[in-house]
Amino acid sequence: MNRRTAKLAFYRSLPVMAGYIVLGIGFGILLRNAGYSVLWAFAMSTLIYAGSMQYVGIGLIAGGASVLTAALTTLTVNARHLFYSISMIDRYKDTGVYKPYLIFALTDETYSLLCDGAVPRDTDPGLYRFLVSLFNHCYWVAGSVIGSLLGAVLPFSTEGIEFSMTALFIASFTEQWLTSRDHIPALTGIGSSLLCLIVFGPDRFLIPTMLLITLVLTLLRGREEATEAP
Length: 230
Known about the structure:
The chain is mainly α. It has twelve helices and no strands.
């Protein structure tokens, strides 16, 4: 059963592999061009494992940012994780020894694969989700290391490479839109983002957007539960 679970988890993670390898290579190249070796690429991707924050982190490290600045920046960039991870509480509560790693490895792309709660028949749900998360993590580390090695031997122009993270977010959104019948969460995200962008501006709209999305989805969920109740 474990071999079958691993096979199914690998197949499930393949769309993320295509993105993470490319994005990881981009990160590794940027980090190498900033003067940091492949060990830094491996350590950051293994221990931090936060794509957009790692891209931002290159500038923080190279610029000698303080611990406080790094902590506040990390909180701002990754604040969205606090909100969408709430929906995974029920699915992760009985995962036993897998739970700490599942929490650590819940990235945007892993969430997009696991948020529907679907688990193949005759598989251990905890192990399946653990393996999907682990495969995605390995893809990111592999891409970062490859990028760092390539950056050491080949000349690259890094102009515009940061857009690769935006491209991955768009791809994840498109995947969810095509595979899900319920488009209310997606439309809520778009509407909330546009509204907060207009009200708060491009430098301050992220956290208000996350709060608004959480509020709207919570209200909608409460309304659905009230409607379904006998």
